[in-house]
Inverse folding.
């Protein structure tokens, strides 16, 4: 009789353990389903990425937002003149740190794509510009507005694309169609 009671007790404990294990599995499945649904909702809410943005549109990158505010031209000054047939193109840009860590910004992350499909890096200009974009760091939430300078024929400016590529090891970049 004791053997029969022990067997029955063991069987009840086994069913209890198996039942609890299967309930946990169902809970996990429901949690996974809820997680998947939440991820799908986030993806649907996320704005669609464009290849090329318009001026004054904010490009959301992983750690920063980039906005081209305006484009203007200059004939130069005193000893700083553009090449014959060209003007200086001044591109005013705002960069905002949207991450939780400091980020770097640099004029050297800027490039210009022309109508012929050539992409040229921008560097430091000798043109005296009031708010030149140089290089530095931004704390979380920090922002910088500055101007980068290139040269182009005046009639080519509207076919140019400004590119800001903060990480050369990533495909992430901001591309903005210029217009004057």
């Amino acid at each position: 009789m004791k053997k029969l009671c022990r067997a029955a007790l063991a069987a009840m404990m086994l069913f209890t353990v198996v039942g609890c294990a299967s309930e946990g599995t169902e809970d996990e499945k429901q949690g996974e389903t809820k997680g998947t649904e939440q991820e799908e909702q986030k993806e649907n809410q996320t704005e669609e990425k464009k290849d090329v943005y318009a001026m004054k549109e904010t490009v959301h990158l992983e750690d920063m937002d980039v906005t081209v505010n305006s484009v203007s031209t200059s004939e130069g000054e005193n000893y700083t003149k553009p090449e014959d047939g060209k003007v200086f193109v001044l591109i005013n840009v705002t960069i905002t740190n949207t991450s939780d860590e400091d980020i770097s910004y640099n004029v050297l992350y800027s490039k210009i794509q022309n109508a012929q499909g050539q992409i040229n890096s921008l560097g430091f200009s000798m043109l005296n510009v009031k708010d030149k974009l140089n290089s530095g760091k931004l704390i979380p939430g920090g922002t910088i507005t500055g101007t980068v300078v290139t040269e182009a024929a005046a009639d080519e400016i509207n076919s140019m694309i400004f590119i800001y590529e903060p990480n050369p090891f990533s495909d992430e970049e901001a591309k903005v169609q210029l217009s004057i």
